[in-house]
Amino acid sequence: MAELTSNPLYSCRNCRNPLALSEDLLSKAFVGKSGPAYMFGHAMNVVLGQKEDKQLITGLFSICNLYCSKCGQDLGWKYVQAYDARQKFKEGRFILEKAKLLKEYC
Ligand SMILES: [Zn+2]
After folding, report:
1. Is residue 80 part of a domain?
2. How many CA atoms lie within 13 A of 36 on its CB side?
3. Across the beta sheet with 46-56, what order do the strands follow?
4. pTM check: above 0.85
5. What is the pLDDT of residues 71-92, one digit of tens each?
6. Total domains present in the chain
7. Which residues hold their Cβ within 5 A of ligand 1, which is an ion?
8. Residue 84, exposed/middle/buried by CB under 10 A (0-12, 13-18, 19+)?
9. Around Cβ 50, how many Cβ atoms within 10 Å?
10. 73: domain range?
11. How far is the CA of 98 from the centre of ligand 1 (A)?
């Protein structure tokens, strides 16, 4: 991989809609519904689904599903609220599944 290019961008694997910047990537250590997932501080061109409470591995959270604004593909979720104080840092963060992303260099 060419690590010399400076601004990699993560886009939708399905329609190449730009979704997140690599500088907003916070962690690669997450697990989504279909496998590895990344946590971002910001995401763009996404549509939020209905808010719901969900029991995840690390506790109970209020989350919204995330969809691509162009093709509607299910991408991951956004943490809206953490019920466990130790998980508060995840609030407002975006989880995008690696399998749904395409890394591009521009
Ligand atoms: Zn898409």
Report:
1. yes
2. 7
3. 25-31, 36-40, 94-97, 74-82, 59-68, 46-56
4. yes
5. 999 999 999 999 999 999 999 9
6. 1
7. 12, 14-15, 17, 68, 70-71, 73
8. exposed
9. 6
10. 25-99
11. 14
